[in-house]
Amino acid sequence: MPCLGFGTWQSLDGDEAYNAVLSALRLGYRHIDTATAYGNEKSVGRAVADFLKEGSVKRSELFITTKLWNEEHGYENTQKAIVRSLEKLGLDYVDLYLIHWPNPLKFRSWWQKANAESWKAMEEAYEAGKLKAIGLSNFCERHIDELLKTAKIKPMVNQIKVCPGQPQTELASYSRNLGMVVEGYSPLGTGGIFKNEEIRQIAEKYGHTIAQVCIRWSLQQNIVPLPKSVNPERIEENSKIFDFELSVEDMNRIANLKNLEIKPARNPDEAEF
Ligand code: A2P
């Protein structure tokens, strides 16, 4: 998995998502993260197809992720959802497929069984080569433990919200100790980080931007960051994070930033969707 991903949550289907993904690919991103729920799989797929037509990169060099939406848990639903996502993306396989949330409202009284059934469908699609890797998103310790009771194939990824002030250290270690790669969405706090004075000072010290420092902070904790932007200059800026290193002290300062205008990670057992 390329260690820097490109997020597409809140990128609108149509020109916005298409142009963002095409720009990202042309600028060197090789890892694109979408989801059924983002409603933009068609545009993401179109951008991937057009980029591949340019001929500089092969499909095998790209890493495309999508996710099962909350309405579609259960064995047969998941089978159908996988086919639908592949059709929308115009791909024969995705590199990673995730259960987006562990406890959808629709399945709240039997989420454990619904996840086990979805996982079985995902294992089969993995064995059939339609999904090159399978994993989880927004799963806490209790949801992971429950899934492991019936899983034949262990989950390979947990994608969780990780941003300054919310390092999720325990859940990240727990996931990693079970062999999962940890991906972090909202590395810029969905845009909420930019008003903070302390992060501005840290960024100035390194001669980099706030966004670069935040993305670098995720990377240095072995979290795969998935920054989102629809602006080509920012997309480029966010990829230039390999030429500096944050000190341990600054890593800790960023982890402990307070009073940020960033919502806390949602409790999956209380989400209203
Ligand atoms: P835009 O898409 O208009 O560039 P996150 O990745 O944490 O979800 O944050 C995404 C938000 O941060 C979006 O509102 C995005 O806006 C904004 N953003 C992304 N990159 C930058 C950047 N380098 N500088 C300022 N804002 C950015």
TrEMBL record:
Residues binding substrate are 100
So where does this one cross the membrane?
none
What Gene3D superfamilies does this protein's entry cite? NADP-dependent oxidoreductase domain
Domain of life where this protein originates: Bacteria
- Active site: residue positions: 38 (proton donor)
Q: Name one GO molecular function term.
A: oxidoreductase activity, acting on the CH-OH group of donors, NAD or NADP as acceptor
> Which InterPro entries does the record match to this protein?
AKR, Aldo/ket_reductase_CS, NAD(P)_OxRdtase_dom_sf, NADP_OxRdtase_dom
Ranges of residues in domain NADP-dependent oxidoreductase = 4-257
The UniProt record lists the keyword Oxidoreductase: yes
Sites marked Lowers pKa of active site Tyr: 67
NADP found in the keyword field: yes
Task: Output the Pfam families linked to this UniProt entry.
Answer: Aldo_ket_red
The protein's UniProt keywords, in alphabetical order, are: NADP, Oxidoreductase
Family membership, please give it: Belongs to the aldo/keto reductase family.
Mind telling me what this protein is named?
Aldo/keto reductase
Source organism: Treponema berlinense
The organism that produces this protein has a lineage beginning with: Bacteria, Pseudomonadati, Spirochaetota, Spirochaetia, Spirochaetales
